[in-house]
Each structure stands twice: as structure tokens, then as C-alpha cells.
Amino acid sequence: MTRTGRVIFYDYDELCLVTDCNFREIPRARDDADEMSDEPWFYVGENDVFPEEFINFLGLPESLRGSFLASHGEIMTADFWRRMQELHRAAEIVDIFPYRESQRLRHVGR
User: 63 to each of 68, 70, 71, 107, how far by Cα in Å?
Assistant: First the structure.
């Protein structure tokens, strides 16, 4: 989210609004030939985004991947991002915290 309140989605090589993205799951391969092909065996549109591929581009060391996925694995799903689009269109502000509530610092009254 920018400081002006706009949600922007970064898709590897370009910036676009999260509401312009078409979040999809990668279709299952029909056979081994599809799986090993240099090219996708399915159609990919201009605004198609496949969140399950994000983990490959985050640059996380292998030793941290499991922990990251256990805590934030939902962001690797198209359903999560479609829900974020719905909330954004409804002008809902979504707070996403890096830590569980039990791990966050608490403000102690004076």
C-alpha cells in the first residue's frame, strides 16, 4: 500500500493495481509432457497472476520457507488475493500484521 492509500500489486516485472489482476490457480498438467514443457500448457492472459508462484520469487532461504509458509501461506493462494480485491472494492481497510497477536508488543497504559 502506498502512503496515499492505493494498493499496488507487484507482478515480477511490472506494477499494476491489485484490482486489475486476474488471480488464478495454475491448472494441473494433463500429463508428463505438459509438466516438462518449456511453455505453459494453459492460456495465460495479460493480467493473469498465479500466487502459488510467489514463493519462488521472494528470495527466502530454504531454511525459512517452511516457517514463512506456516505463518503466511494464505498469500500464496488466488482465493486470498481475490478476497483482498473484494475488500478493496468495498473500501475496507485491511490490517496485515507480520506477527500473531500473542507475539505483538502491547501498549501499556500510563
Answer: 10, 13, 14, 33
pTM: 0.72
Task: Indicate the domain borders of the chain.
Answer: 8-97
CA dihedral 64, 66, 53, 79 (to 10 degrees): -130
Q: Write out pLDDT tens, residues 49-66.
A: 999 998 988 888 999 999
Please give the grid coordinates belonging to residue 5. 492509500
What are the φ/ψ torsions at residue 60 (nearest 5 degrees)? -75, 140
**Tens digits of per-residue pLDDT, 15-30?**
788 899 999 999 988 8
